[in-house]
Amino acid sequence: MTQPFTVRIAVRGYETDSQGHLNTSVYMQYGEHARWSLVQASGIRQSDLVEKAVGPVNLESTIRFHRELRAGDEVDVTCSFVFGEGKTFRVEQSFLRDGELVAELTSVGGMMDLRARRLLPDPRATFREFASDPEILGL
Fold first, then answer.
1. Are 89 and 109 a contacting pair, CB within 8 Å?
2. What pTM, to 2 d.p., does this model score?
3. CATH number at residue 21
4. Is residue 71 one of the residues assigned to a domain?
5. Digits of tens for pLDDT over the chain (139 positions)?
6. Separation CA 56–CA 110 (nearest Å)
């Protein structure tokens, strides 16, 4: 089995809350950074999507916290796209500090027609159309 796509991020002091923990909204930002890094690694450029008036959208996100992150920690954020049938797909992400699970972020996404403001019927087809390496996306 191959390792999931991973991005390492250093936790900065200004990203922490009054208890010294990484702020919840920053977990979402780290997750978004890892998702776009994976999409870019597959060969998809955001500007190409915009030019064709399509783009991925987040429909739902759930974070489950297991351990705290503090300023100075380094966290590996994994990212895996899971496609089924239909208009939506899942993105599964783990946050790991020194290999220990810190948090899990699970999202439901879709690919939107930006003109019609509707989800496309098959997001896999759109990802395949734009990706030079669709295997990174699990396709």
1. yes
2. 0.94
3. 3.10.129.10
4. yes
5. 468 999 999 999 999 999 999 999 999 999 999 999 999 999 999 999 999 999 999 999 999 999 999 999 999 999 999 999 999 999 999 999 999 999 999 999 999 999 999 999 999 999 999 999 999 999 9
6. 6
